[in-house]
């Protein structure tokens, strides 16, 4: 279409022209079949869009009494971190706390190093040997002085374990 | 405070469905439209309410919602190329609103043609036809000049017409 009024048809259907311009274009429409067809096509698209929009609104999943609740978003406004980063930090803290608790628990229950320290601090105190025949503490001393810390239970008759005992 | 709450509730009831519908046209029907619409209202409630006239709240909401939708589309763009292929096979992607609703053939075809328009033309035309906003109001929402809106709306209609005629010719 080469008509100079083509772009004005769009303004006409939207009512975005002055009264004088509207009269001029409408006068032109009376004599231009192409522009009249163009106007009808624009109005056709408008009807289809409006009708489909009406159906879209009718089927939208919207609660008419939905109220704004900003309390669910409040924490998000006050925590500068993204949720995932915050969750990771909490998990890391919990894991650190659990590890710390377990390592303390394990140390107090079974800590041969502390027994040795007690032993060396007060050698005159009677040391009750463990029930195992041999307790090697080399793992705490990196093997450097393993022989010193190897404790053997002395049998009542002074024989080494493994001898003939009744 | 109570009066403000009442006013925003009124705006919400009047505007929320239309805002969701507009966002669905931009984003598709995958619940993001409602999230973004709610985010827009939240921003209005927390920051701007009281600073903008009630009569302009509706346009402000559309403007914020559209900007949030464009941010979301930017994020999607990098994933779409890969997931498009997956979606073609498994239909993971959500269907367009036109496909989900019981629209007649002409309505479906027009909606599909609308989806093929550039975003700024589609937004301008939808705000004009669905929301019946004036060119000045649309220019405020889209943050462009009025003359650009005139051009965009005309080009959108011309493009729809051209595609429609092509479709009609192919049918024969």
Short key terms for the protein model shown above:
heterodimer, A: about 170 residues, mainly alpha, two-stranded antiparallel ribbon, 7 helices, 2 strands, disordered C terminus, B: about 170 residues, globular
Descriptive notes:
The complex is a heterodimer of chains A (166) and B (172). In chain A, strands 1-2 form a two-stranded antiparallel ribbon. With 166 residues, chain A is mainly alpha-helical. Mean pLDDT of chain A is 69; it is low at 63-78, 114-125, 146-150, 153-157 and 160-166. Chain A has helices at residues 6-14, 19-29, 33-59, 71-78, 83-109, 112-121, 146-149, and strands at 134-135, 151-152. Chain B is built from eight helices and no strands. Chain B has helices at 2-27, 32-48, 54-90, 97-100, 105-115, 119-129, 135-142, 146-171. The chains are: A mainly alpha (166), B mainly alpha (172). Chains A and B meet through helix 1 and helix 3 of A and helix 1, helix 2, helix 4, helix 5 and helix 6 of B.
Kindly provide the radius of gyration of chain B, computed on alpha-carbon positions and rounded to a whole number of angstroms.
18 Å
CA-CA gap between termini of chain B = 63 Å
Instruction: Output the structural class of chain B.
Output: mainly alpha
Mean pLDDT of chain A: 69
Helix content of chain B: over 70%
Q: How many beta-strand elements of chain A?
A: 2
Report low-confidence residues of chain A grouped into runs of 5 or more: 63-78, 114-125, 146-150, 153-157, 160-166
Please, what is the average pLDDT of chain B?
A: 83
Estimated share of beta-strand residues of chain A: under 5%
Main interface: chain pair and counts: A-B, 30 and 42 residues
Whole-angstrom Rg of chain A: 46 Å
Q: What gross morphology of chain A would you assign?
A: rod-shaped
Topology:
The complex is a heterodimer of chains A (166) and B (172).
Chain A: H1 6-14, H2 19-29, H3 33-59, H4 71-78, H5 83-109, H6 112-121, E1 134-135, H7 146-149, E2 151-152
Antiparallel strand pairs in A: 1-2
Chain B: H1 2-27, H2 32-48, H3 54-90, H4 97-100, H5 105-115, H6 119-129, H7 135-142, H8 146-171
